[in-house]
Amino acid sequence: MDRNKQDVENLKTMWKRDYEQKAHDALKFIKTTIDESVETSGEMVNFYNQLKNGVLLCKLVNALKRGTCTIPETRFASPREGELIKLAIIGMEQLGVTGLFQKDDLVEMKNLTKWLTAICTLQENKN
């Protein structure tokens, strides 16, 4: 098996063992908070697919504090990759969640656990 494939398989195994339930709970928190349909499977690929464009993250931040993360309206093109994630990071920092994550952790699927931790922190701060 090629090294990258082995790394991906190891990551999936670790995710399933350690983070799948937390990811499910985090996506369920987002779904409940924004009152929209969100696939809440805690599988790593689903967690990534739900968050990768930043839309749900911006909606979550706005639901927690109105006007914090305005999604730009564009007529001819969707926001560039990572633009909404940057806005979500700014909004999360305004809500007190700082230093845990970077745009590339999500865009490049490098460290999804940091994003999972950030969402869990938002949930804890809400309660």
From TrEMBL:
<dbReference type="InterPro" id="IPR001715">
    <property type="entry name" value="CH_dom"/>
</dbReference>
<dbReference type="InterPro" id="IPR036872">
    <property type="entry name" value="CH_dom_sf"/>
</dbReference>
<dbReference type="GO" id="GO:0007015">
    <property type="term" value="P:actin filament organization"/>
</dbReference>
<dbReference type="GO" id="GO:0051015">
    <property type="term" value="F:actin filament binding"/>
</dbReference>
<dbReference type="Pfam" id="PF00307">
    <property type="entry name" value="CH"/>
</dbReference>
<protein>
    <recommendedName>
        <fullName>Calponin-homology (CH) domain-containing protein</fullName>
    </recommendedName>
</protein>
<dbReference type="InterPro" id="IPR050606">
    <property type="entry name" value="Calponin-like"/>
</dbReference>
<feature type="domain" description="Calponin-homology (CH)">
    <location>
        <begin position="20"/>
        <end position="127"/>
    </location>
</feature>
<dbReference type="GO" id="GO:0015629">
    <property type="term" value="C:actin cytoskeleton"/>
</dbReference>
